[in-house]
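Budget justification, computational time. The allocation requested in the original proposal was used primarily to generate structure tokens for proteins on the priority list. As evidence of use, we reproduce two of the resulting records. The first is shown immediately below.
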Amino acid sequence: MAEPRSIEGKSGYFYRIYTDLRMHHSFSDETIENLARLSEMLKAKGTTLIYAPVPTKSQAMPEFLPDSAALYGYTRELAVQSYQTVVDRLRAANVVAADLQSPMIAAKSHDGLFFRSDFHWTAQGARLAAEAIADVIKAQPEYASAKKTKFKTRELESIVSFSTLRNNLQRFCKDSLPAVESMAYETTKADQSSGSLDLFGAEATDPIALVGTSMSNAEAGNFGGFISQYSSLALTNYAISGGNQFGSILSYMTSREFQENRPRFLIWENPIYNNLGQYGPAPWVELLAAASQTCQPALEAKGLDDQPNEFVVDLTSVEVTPDQAVMVETPDQTIRDLKVDAALANGQHRTISMLRGDRLRATGRFYFPLQPLEQAPITSLKLIFDRPPEGGSELQLCSY
């Protein structure tokens, strides 16, 4: 009856039925192909993509599952294999993928890799995952020439984190559920006598950029700090809580930080149950075009005197190919909403809307393909922003 629906296991561990007990995780051939293309494009520009799928609680800690899990179709061997299959397919497609499941299974579950009444990993789970990712990084040829920095991690104090899942479960339980409590950690440069390392700062030249979900962004996890400790590489954390599977990486790769100072390693953390095909091709077009950044000179976007938030781009003499996306950019990095009206030669109009939600960073840059709009040659585009952008707007055609 709780949301999400869950079952209670041993020692107060709760498992979500739909995500934690799932035996199949959507990773289509098209998704594998998109990840392989993204990896290849990033590599061509000097960045190695490391995809890090986070195992579910049942894959990492099966010992605490109740016998009733079998009634929902759960089989331990199949759960483990479903994760490994995804990693194997990614590696076969030349995507550098980190196996986070194996070290967690090898660890003793009583170490508390995930919280009892929440789906996030604890600092111990984050540490194991970070060590596995660091091993993958150190195995890459480009690691040898990366600037190394010694880091140390110290234990702070125990903190209690807010958990929506725990609150929802508590409504159906007489006894108080285990608090989402974990020891906090702090990672600093080894030569620093005081002060903490700003893992969320704007050091765009750090060798590692981390994008991901609340797993990477959780205060108690110290995930980025552990990666720096085990890899000896400085890291900037761009993870976003509640940004879904694409929010963080889209926010980062459409930013000026990424285009002007690409990292040597880009770690993309994502829970294994996140379906990378859920939103169709739109996010992939943006990621691939941003990674390639092979764009033609800017086309003139003329502002309208009576509508300062609208601009018109003449395309009558521009040929658009199927492998091109439009990049709309404005220096105003607070713009979140863009609507495009495409005027076709046959008199029809097609529209596309793009919205950067509150959970995403506004970067002032949008990518979208014209081919789905092209029922006839496109004569012009009208760009409609949510408000007048400071500094105007420009448009380029980018291959992807």
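The second record produced under the same allocation is shown here.
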Amino acid sequence: MPTFNRSAFLVESIESLLAQTHPIHKIIIINDGSTDDTLEVLKAYEGRVDIISKPNGGKAAALNMALQLVPEGLVWIFDDDDLARPDGLETLMALLSGNPEANMAYGRHERFKVDPDGSVRILGDGYWRDCESDEFLAATLEDMFAHQPGMIVRKELYDLVGPFDETLVRSQDYDMLIRLARVATPVSTEAYIFRQRIHDGVRGTQGKPVSAEAMSSSWAVFDKIIFRNIHPELKLSEYLGKGKKIHNLASKRHALIRRSAVMARKKLWFHAMDDLRNAAATSDEPLTQSEITALRRALASKYGCEEVLQDPKLVDELCQLAMSSATGSQIVASLARGLRWRVRSALFSENRWNSVRYFLLMSKLAKASSMFAKRYQPEMAASMKPFQKVDRFK
């Protein structure tokens, strides 16, 4: 457990680990240069946990130090502000025991907040994807849903993929999860493993603090850095799932579309558009349901997609793609359908005007898609009319 200036939450987190129904062999606390009363708080746990202090260097540096102290076995990385369910470790251990081929186990989490009067509010489940083991990498590339406090990993996997990236102030865990997902054989459970605390505390390092207000935007920035770096490293086939190969034009187009959706969610539209154009030129066959689903998720990033509202050049490129071919028309029509959720959710946001802007963009992309069909494929144009009627706001 790395910790930095979290004495207000630290006791509850440690106690939740000590209360596990399956005993933990060793608990290592890395005090990452805390300037509050963290060391005073930790004195009460001397003899029950190993306490190591170091100059402040960030979460990644603290975790790398801790991993060097673990020669073998299973590693459970826990955050200093979250709470483990009493049977969390027992649940994960049972998963590995029942699946001897697995080298990583993970489960769900729920979010909570403590109000000023001390009352606890459960805010609902954290983001979750139910997927098979061979789909774990592809699902993780879209978004992070398996979190370190909710997983245990065999130490040899960490040795295999290398240390945490200490240049990342945020998203170090996401970067590591992607690397693990490329080589792991995971097993999952629908059971809750921990509770994730939502609070206004500062994240990051002493030299590069990140406020609670900037938390989401900082994740978006560092996720973009991560995916810019891994784009040339990951094989196109890895976007289809672990162990899958590109064996024909259909599978190549599917992989291109899935990668384009991932890059769009990370706001790397240069790569996304390149893949979309290549996908449109790869096969003239109608899009599969899986491809349509991936495209609809392309604009569903938790960080929003306001860049499509702010970049007229990007919108022009999408319209050009829509009018380039039958496949391009279908691709953009699917992207447009994905904006319906943005239209609705923006109605309940602080900036309701975005609901109108998203609707106008959705209509523009849908119109560009239908223009190709009207010119060259009347039967396709007929199939698009119900979509246009359903999505008009009156």
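A brief technical remark on that second record: The chain has 17 helices and eleven strands.
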